[in-house]
Amino acid sequence: MGGCLPPRRGMALDGKLPETIPLADLPMTPKFGRNNPLPAGALNLFPDNPKILKEFHVQDAYLIKTEGDYSLVVWPSIYQFSTNRQFVNRLDLMPLSMKLHLWPSQ
Length: 106
Prior knowledge:
By secondary structure, the chain is mainly beta. The chain contains one helix and five strands; from the N terminus they run βαββββ.
């Protein structure tokens, strides 16, 4: 098996995400013309229309000292508007696991 690499200092990748966030507490985009502000970073997700939610560079968060095969496990969460659009609710998705061949950090 192998060990677990700790993230670089200040690069912790997990956090305590609240179950529900009131819409008023979210950062908003500026009002533009007739368009009202929207939560910053909001994405409309539709079937058959994939989106890149967040780009992640392993070596930005982990110091790779030895070339080799590594496993990366990600537990994504997204927030969905409530039916009355007054708050967002967290949805925890299934963990994703992938094998990566990495080279030492530059």
